[in-house]
Queue: 3 jobs
Job 1
Amino acid sequence: MIKETDFLVIGSGIAGLSFALKVADVGKVILINKTTIDESNTKYAQGGIAAVTYEPDNLKKHIEDTLIAGDGLCDKEIVEMVVSEAPAQIKQLIEWGVKFDQNEKGEYNLGKEGGHSENRVLHHKDNTGEEIQNSLVNRVKNHKNIEELENHFAVDIITQHHLGKLVKRSHNNTECYGAYVLDLKTDRVNTFLSKMTIIATGGTGNLYDTTTNPKIATGDGIAMVYRAKGIIENMEFIQFHPTSLYNPGEKPSFLITEALRGFGAILKTTDGKKFMNKYDKRGSLAPRDIVARAIDQEMKITGNDYVHLDCSHLDAVKLKNHFPNIYEKCLSLNIDITKDPIPVVPAAHYMCGGVKVDENGASTINKLYAIGEISSTGLHGANRLASNSLSEAIVYANRAAEDSVKRLNQITINKDIPEWDSHETTYPEEMIMITQNYKEVQQIMSNYVGIVRSNLRLERALRRLEIIYKETEELYEKSILSQQLCELRNLINVGYLILKMAQNLHESRGLHYSIDYPKKGNISEF
Ligand code: FAD
Ligand code: SIN
């Protein structure tokens, strides 16, 4: 089957949904996602969305905090642009129906998180993401120009390669004509032809065995763009969130928001000793890379599987009111956070690098935009400042919408694209080939390419990943496509990019910390 549209949007998190709403009055939109429209990383966001609203905060401070967190690798002009444009886009979210908590005077309640010098995080209790996701989904469902298709798994971006032409990463004339998409209900691969393709497939947390990300986060977009010869960058900067709930067996790991530390919660060892001031004068509210490494170090020193986050000194009524979901979740495990410390461990959380894009979200492949977590815009550098990703997603959804709408009339749909060729393939005989390799990839990445790395660990990881890569490619060549096989293949691809980029960085910076290149300054203890 062939489908045609003006805008093909792949992914229905904050980035894809906002983009669809911005362009739907101008052209027809097909919005696809691989599970259901309401499932995404966005839905699980807790802390909130960072932007300057009231004094004493100002743009300069937010810019400065973002640059400091990014450890010298942010693009200053992009940081200035995103921070300046975020307030207007948050206003747009509010007009679309998103509700943020307000005080009795009608002012927004602003939370604080690691690395922020002011309170600037707008939030809805401790389930900001769900509030955003639901509001945008409602609006999308009511727009007659948006066709949303669930259980549609994008397999590959279509380029000149599919017309038998040579496509190279060094060329600047590669064009995107749409995508091949697996309909998970019929098992058929259909051809979606579009004037503009927008890839908003989010991150890749499932490369690691402990992650805050839901199952959908398997780096599909990165792998697709890489295979299509787009440029990918900064993949070594994988952000581990310092505090996910220690509850062995639970997947994804339940997040304990950083806003709780902004509210006054303190990290302690299991015997009740504060430790963060040993590592950074900002204590429990230092930027994430520093806190995650400190926890990792303390767990190694003590041999414990977790550290504690203590809220017992905080006002119990206010605590329950601001963090009702965390309170309930912990209570279901017999942890009363008003009295008992919460056991926490770091978990893979966010991908700072991704598809290289310009200031409008355009990738290096013509007519292909990448927005949201999948993109590498220059905002985050070597470490993302907390709650900056939702702001980045809405700013870039807006910019990509304006830019693509301007170019739409000059573009015609390419009708020469062949349909997906699936001849001589069969169903894999044993799923264990896929599931075992999936687990092995997670173990390799967690043990060798985690919070603290070394040259030897990276080399070992690469050797092991190469074996799994070969086995998986052989299976892929002869198998009828399945979501599991595609996701495994994509994860291997993304793991390879992280490893190669980590090997090329001969220093410790931000989220990439190698014991072979110890960093000077107040984190040298690591
Ligand atoms: P997502 O929201 O992840 O959406 C991706 C979409 O792509 C989904 O619809 C998925 O189905 C679809 N998709 C993926 N692959 C395919 C495919 N092959 N074919 C078709 N569809 C596909 N950031 C903040 O700024 N503040 C916070 O408080 C915050 N809290 C967080 C808490 C948690 C637990 C997590 C996991 C993340 C948090 N983040 C937070 C990060 C932030 O939520 C994400 O970076 C952001 O929501 C990503 O949005 P997105 O639209 O790019 O992708
Ligand atoms: C959190 O609430 O701690 C997550 C915030 C983020 O990832 O930006």
Job 2
Amino acid sequence: MKIRKVVLPVAGWGTRSLPASKVIPKEMLPVYNKPVIQYVVEEAVRAGVSEVVFVTNRHKSVVEDHFDRNIELEDMLARAGKFDYLKAVQEAGSMVEVMAVRQKEQLGLGHAVGCAATLVQEDFFAVMVGDDFIVGDDAGLVQLVQAVEKYNKPAIGVMEVPADKIDKYGMVAGEEIEEGVFRISDMVEKPAVGSFDSRLAIVGRYVLPRDIFRYISCVKPGKGGEIQLTDAMRDYMLEKGMLAVKMKGRRFDAGDWVDYLSAGIYFGLKDEKLAGPLREAVAKLIG
Ligand code: G1P
């Protein structure tokens, strides 16, 4: 099964990244030489996605602009013979078709996804939370696409977290039906520490059925008074079943400063031109 479309909610304030995110959307903060959101979109493209629906607010139009062509800039780079930069700029501008819909009020992740309802006609579509990025060529959304193909059920990405962190995530419990694939039996948004046995946390990767929009429109405000995607998924799961897939690879949470800074170093070290001097500079700082 091909998953063509991803809904990417980017309307949040990004308070954890302030003051850096005061004017620049948190999704546009650079991790090495690309904005955070580009890594997320690249993961979607690796999973076969070709259309992105950004759920935005009026301060976030630069997110769409990043994935649009910039002919003026491209002309300048071509004239100056700066072909490496030209290639990078063109790549960002042509990797996906871009659509956007406004979330006019911040009423929660479920509400944000619900805003995209009219732009999603496909039986299954992906949702990605832009703060989480997962690295590894065969890791992340592509694993969910494979699971949905095999079992014909919606699937969400999970990772194990320590018991004292379960109140930071949507948590799922379930029976393992294949290594790393679980049939979900329960799902709770940010349960209190000690109140939920499983340590499988939702990490912001979902392949959902279009029917989920109906469930979203029926859920009442949940945790934090928000319309929670987890609550809508739970209702769906109880009726029709849903899978959780343990994500391979490494996850960075862009809203966490240790993860954010580590991600910059991780991608810097992957660039052979930078790796040597960067390793030396970091060693010197630490030493
Ligand atoms: C959201 C979801 C939560 C999930 C998390 C992953 O929470 O509601 O279920 O575990 O993303 O990043 P947020 O971090 O937006 O509060």
Job 3
Amino acid sequence: MDREQAAKRVRELTEQLERHNHLYYVEAKPVISDQEFDFLMKELEALEKQFPDLASPNSPTQRVGGDLTKEFPTVAHRWPMLSLENSYSREEVAEFVRRVEKEAGPTTFVMELKYDGVAISLTYRNGELMRGVTRGDGEQGEDITANVRTVRTIPLRLRGNPPAELEARGEILMGFREFEALNDLRGKEGEERFANPRNTTAGTLKLQDPKVVAKRHLQNYIYDLYTVEMPSSSHFENIRRCGEWGFRTPDPKERFIARANGVEDIMAFISYWDGARHQLPIAMDGVVIKVDDLGIREELGLRAKSPRWAIAYKFPAENKATRLNGVEFNVGRTGAITPVALLEPVELAGTTVKRASIHNADQIAKLDLHIGDMVLVEKGGEIIPKITGVDLARRPQDARPVHYPALCPECGTPLVRDEGEAQHYCPNEHGCPPQITRRIEHFVGRKAMDIGGLGGETVEALYKAGLIHNVADLYDLRQEQLLALGKGWGERSTQLIIDGIAASRTVPFERVLFALGIRHVGETVAKKIARSTGSIDRLAEMSPEELTGIGEVGEVIAASIRDFFTVEGNRRIVERLRNAGLVLVADAAAKGPESDKLKGLSFVVSGVFKTFTRDGIKETIEAHGGKVGGSISRKTNFVVAGDDMGPAKKAKADELGVPVIGEAEFRRMIEE
Ligand code: IVH
């Protein structure tokens, strides 16, 4: 096949695949079998391989995920992404309707579901998906286009006659079924289960590997359209038009969207969904009521963060009564004890709940929890289900009070509770088995040393077999030792582990530091510390005062770092990791300046920026050799001001004659 023929065939296949994708995912009316679909996809893949220049970024082949994304650039929204005013009672909704109609006269409203997912802005130019951006702070978000392309209900190319440039906004969601399946899989692989579909969606969209995103089966609904010349002055009609262009839009037949005239229609819609929401395959937490007419919207205008022409009615958090069968006391990596309620399984907000968190001993006392009690379990927006109450009237005769253990349930060491802290700890850091294995698990985890082939179960097995007692022991492992463990430890899987361990020797210092699992030193803090100290040796000798000099390190973190390095055992482990060849110094490139254009200059940063985050602009200044100060003084050379710089700072700068520059000017300083 020559190039011209190939180009023609690529066009045909692209069109067919997108049409079948739409029929399958948006309309749920497939007309070809999965196998036929795969067949067409394989043909397209082969052609793109043979003629790489024919592969467009919006090719259907990208639905399964393109290349790894290094970072998500920050992008300013052309129209700010507002939020909605929330209301929790029907009376507030009625009040909203009265207020609107007082200003605008009798008004038509549109009612939609309030999807409980993650907002997304989708920009199309000449019908092609150009960009998918998160809401971020409403002014600017992150460009996650490669991940967005894997969402099958989002068209890569529009059909019909859409405006040359448009932005569609909507919600990306994970269905309950997909969520449960993913969690089951994670459970099997010894990974921590996700809390709920919404957080999982948010986390998934920030993954750097679009191929993993593709496997998570996200979906979406469109709820808003922005374009210079709107097709209609009615929101309802505009959403319908979005549907014609291939977007997945709420279906009036399913009552996902409806028009209302007057407050009665609205209350009927709320009542309907109050009951029907439990049968939905996706999470929603309320109903959104919007003025239909765009002209009236304009008249009503906006508040600072939300429009005056819309309101969200939120359903109360769901709760249910179920029996408390027992309480488990789990020991975490840091020795912290968390009580977990074991429940008679109940269906709650779309998922089966078997466990709930009970925060600490005080909570148990406050609720006077007894095994056998009927407890109220509640699932709020983003939290793991929690126990909110006990139905004392239904307490069985033989109910036994829950006793908080005095000894560690795993190793028998007396538990301690620090003054002012709610949590109990097992202090037996180096002898308590779950603390040891969870520390090693944390060490090998994806965000830490990322040792493929090792997970919760394998670590535990190696510990039980006496092969590892701490993270340094991993580097002494030999393949023969693993093979000798017998069933399940084959040539391939053990090689994977050995290779993974070897590869971890190149993991940068900031992640090694995070992997060590020093209490309170999370990913971000580890990064900051690694960049500003430059090496583990320097860190080990720093005083608490020096440590708190690092941005983001407070007294608690500083004390925890000091504690870590005063323990002889920890120092020995660090020594062994050094001998094993791990990276214990920061990469010069990561630490050293990008340029010295700002050398000798001192800056103060104030306000909100369009193309930088607040930390981002500070890092940029430092990366170019400049210094960032907290307050304006005579030594300050420039104040970089974003939107709404504080008036006090402005006055101070004027008084001292310090020049105030904008974001664009700052960019020129580093780019020229
Ligand atoms: S309209 C100004 N419609 O709720 C209009 N938003 O609190 C704002 N949301 O970030 C968006 N379902 O992620 C709109 N049918 C719906 C919605 C919806 C869910 C989310 C959206 C937004 C948040 C605002």
